[in-house]
User: Fold this.
Amino acid sequence: MRDMMGLMKQAQDMQKKMAEMQAQLDTLEFEGSAGGGLVKVVMTAKNVLKSVKIDPSLMVQGEEEILEDLVISACNDARNKAERSVQERMAEVTRGLPIPPGMKLF
Assistant:
């Protein structure tokens, strides 16, 4: 019975930490870049795109596909950074709890 009470306490603590982390994710921003920094984007941890900066040298008529690819790459870079950060934070929150491998809480 003591183990069950301890597990319930851990679950409550995790729930509180998860709520705190959710609030933090709204404010965390990650920069992604492509083309040696010619294209930069800023995205939140919840994958909300906040800004896009494109170097004017990329504004060449007839080469739109290159620019489009660079924007996509920069967005993917920022998203990957955000996902790694969220995974690291989740590992901290769930440390010590008997959660099956591969189970996604977020």
